[in-house]
Here is the input.
Amino acid sequence: MMGSLLLPLLLAGAPVEAPLPPAAVEALAKAPPGTRIGLVVVDAEGREIVALRPDERFIPASNTKLFTTAAAFATLDVASPDIRGGATVRLEGRGTPTVILAGHGDARLSSAPGCRVDCLGELVAAVARRTRVVGDVVGDDTAFSDERWPQGMSWNNMDSVYGTGISALTLDDNVTILTVSPTAPGEPLQVIGDGYYRIENAATTGEAGSGNALSVERMPGSDLLRVTGSLAAGATPVVQKLGVDDPAHRAAWRFAQLLRAAGVMVKGRITVRHRSLTDANDPARRGRAPVTVAAPVPVLAALTPSPLAEDLYQTNKTSQNLHAELLLRRLGASGSVADGHAVVDAVLARAGIARVTYDFADGAGMSNYDRVTPRTTVALLRWAETQPWGADWRATFPVAATDGTLARRFAGTPLAGRLMAKTGTLNAANALAGTMIAASGRMLTFAAYANDMPGDMSAIPAIDAALVAIAGAN
Here is the structure.
């Protein structure tokens, strides 16, 4: 009875082409006031079981990664070693050579002390074998256009791990780590960074049990970290990952650190080479006369990362924004966002998806400009099932109550271990799309979007409960 009373209220003014079961109506009615919900559920034969606002456009948040990673599976060689993407090093000039550390889009280059695969240390060793003195150390990310943040991303994300700068030369996920520990009550906190940022420490240690109120802030474009607030004496140290504005510069800075540790004297500066969209040498600028440039200096050493399929798995399982953005740029030959989106458009056209049903400003979903309809996402999911790479792509989705961003969702429900889907969370936006096994054993494909929640309220509990109800009714 309750479901029948709520249905007119919940769906007032909303296009409904296939009704929801009463229990799903009750679940969605518990979403925050003003929430706009779109939901499409399709069975294995393509029949729509549920269609609520199916053709309205929603901010998809990290569901955007579905479209980027599908295009990667469809157009890139993801199964072979990543010969194209690995970092290289070369020496320019005679006497005291300039070191050029160049990136080509690999997301996994590491300078961690225990690194075993795709390690910056291998390139350091190559330089150390050739010379004991170098001049400048240059971070070269000209393989991609210099488009470090997507249009429509909130500026306050720029200093966080979720919005770190995007660069063809990526090292350690383009983040720097800060460790903050309590000392004695009334004394300053101990703040330890890696030396890349300057630190202004105005934080103190509180009495044991007094609670924690720590703040770490950096304005975009600044190299100054401000640490304020307090940690209680005896509290667990806080380890915080911080975004980097110029990843190529930080990579060159770190390379110089490791060179010195290997006994190589660095006599010059840490500098960068970028390629802007207004650069006459940018291949993304169609119709312009080519510019003759000097032949490149031969590479001294190059890394070959493991297959991209491994990175795609982590990108969707953990919803890794930086890696998705790098994939978007790798789709097009020029390394620009526009050319990457052109490839996504071509893939979606092959899937029979109309261009007017979506807009993407980025590859990860951090942009508030992104839009997609629930039917479009379901169409992509169903088309991918017919492709040779479809099963591998779906295997990158988090599994309910099992792993990735769904590890803690659907626990104790019939969908635990039976739902595979990509999550999404952004300002006033929640998303979930993938497949689930219904009570009957049938495979259902779905896309659920919630937008316009007030404040920081979440519609995730309502969406999850509705999906459990729909699966139970089918």
